[in-house]
Amino acid sequence: MFLRHLRQAGQAGLLALATLLAACGGGSDPASGSSSATGGQSSNSLGQLAISLTDSQGCDYKSVWVTVEQVRIHKDSSAGDGDGGWLDLNLSPARRVDLLTLRNGVFVDLGTIQLPAGKYTQVRLVLATNENDVLDEFFRTGIYRPRTTAETHVTSSPSMDISKASNFERFIFDLVGRDAAIVRELWREVDAGGSFSLAGGPFGERLPSYGFVSGSSSHADRLATIRDVWQRHGLMIDTHTADGIKVAKKHRVAGMPMIVLETAQAVKFAETIREALGRDPVRPAELEGLEDLPQKVEVVDAAVNQVKDIIVRHC
């Protein structure tokens, strides 16, 4: 049995990834429908890897969102992205999680996968972005360059429309050896409207060890992915899910199953669904007639006490 805790960082904060691989013996019969692993390793003795996500205690942030679309596992700690032997767990669509809901021993399951028993020294999370690819650029090049308003795109997957990564300082703080002085110097450049590069230096060389692989997706990619999933599987997916599937396919290993977890209801993005499929999205029965229900609105001043009073009266 092998247990490893790996500290990682996401779009906006630190997270802990706990993995457990136990040899079950007896192997797995592919004909039975069980997951099988690829990478040229023997399947005579398989173990089950259960992957969960949790967060460490942090500062006074209201939320820290990460989108996980893939977990990659390898026995060799020096293996690069293009090397063979990677075993992938694909979350398709990507799983969007608020890390601040995962504290005090609370975990969220990302999935399980059958692997040959043994010791694995790399576990990577694959993150997806849309056209606003500030984080994809950083994980590919080591350059962090927040976008100006003019450079920030309004897209059909709006929850990913960011120009500057929220709470990204938390990850950089960990990356630079928890040296606050270095973080202050880097963010002095950012706050002045600039950027910084960790490429070619010791901190940039540490990036691969954190296990992030990323990719970006465009509106055309979303339309094509929504159309493809609908035609092949009869499933109507939302735009953020389409981003995750598109990037996950880029990192997929042949022969490995892709596990899909839906990100949102497709009905929330009716305009894009109509563009992709030429029809209105399927509306869940519980949402039928939602717009016709009574709406209650109470206008209050931007005052803390008034907001607290509403909470006390109605919650």
Strand portion: 15-25%
Radius of gyration: 22 Å
The portion of residues assigned to helices is: 25-40%
Instruction: Give the class-level CATH name.
Output: Alpha Beta
What is the approximate shape? Answer: globular
In the CATH hierarchy, what is the architecture at level 2? 3-Layer(aba) Sandwich
Q: What structural category characterises the helix and strand content?
A: alpha+beta
Mean pLDDT, to the nearest integer, reads 75
Task: Write down the domain tally.
Answer: 1
Unreliable runs: 1-43
CATH topology: Rossmann fold
Q: What can be said about the biggest beta sheet?
A: 5 strands, mixed
Number of helices: 8
Strand order of the largest sheet: 10-7-4-5-11
The SSE string, one letter per element, is EEEEEEEHEHHEHEHHEHH
Distance N to C terminus: 47 Å
How many beta-strand segments? 11
Q: Can you give a write-up of this model?
A:
- This protein has 315 residues and is of the alpha+beta class.
- The protein has a single domain, classed as Rossmann fold, CATH 3.40.50.
- 25% of the residues lie in helices and 24% in strands.
- The protein contains eight helices and eleven strands.
- The strands form three sheets. A five-stranded mixed beta sheet has the order 10-7-4-5-11. A four-stranded antiparallel beta sheet has the order 1-2-3-6.
- A hairpin with a 4-residue loop joins strand 1 (2-9) and strand 2 (14-23).
- The longest helix is centred in the last third of the chain and has 15 residues, at 219-233.
- The radius of gyration is 22 Å and the shape is globular.
- Mean pLDDT is 75; it is low at 1-43.
